[in-house]
Amino acid sequence: MDPMHKNILPPDKIKLAFFDLDETITCKDTDFLWASWRSRRSPLGWMDLLGLLKINRLYYSHRLTAAEYGAYHFKRASSMTPERYRKMAASFAASAAKRYVYPEMRTLLDDNRKRGIRNVLITAQDEIIGSAFSSLLNMDDCLASRYVIETGRFTGMEQPLCFQEGKVHWASQYLEKMNFVWEDCAFYSDSLNDRPLLEACAYPVAVHPGAELSALAAEKQWPVFKPEKP
Description:
CATH topology: Rossmann fold
């Protein structure tokens, strides 16, 4: 069941809902899904997987820095042109969404749309894969880690990344642009790394939280949502 139906959140007060991507909308990490998908098509996918092993060790021990995550994304993308990457990302997302998006999240997005609530993906994932998922799910916007693109090639990462406090930065700019305030906003996330944005939004929801986020949610009296896996 969708959390609105369980009265987890007051839909009459929410105008915008932010959603994390990995293990919130999808039941698995999209960096891993991408690397696995690419490894079946190119030896470069195996390089993505090897780089991801280090990133995941740091991430799950809460030691991953924005600089390290940005370097991983840049290295991954720099072997392709932006046009090539967008085409590959669209194909990957179409395949992954069928298998790994929580059905209850699809229902929640649809229900929000019917109520006039704006659905916005906000993810540390890069803008190309993030946008591919948000488009497939008919979301209103995507805030993600951005590349610097010059003369048709990737040259760097725009700062700050959409990671940890960086999510608050990009969400704040978006709210100002769209004439919303934090009191209008819900945010769904599985990650303790998203604590800054969870605390900024009026209606935070912990999705399949681990032990540390579960403890924080209990302390703050945040609702917990556990959609069933596809």
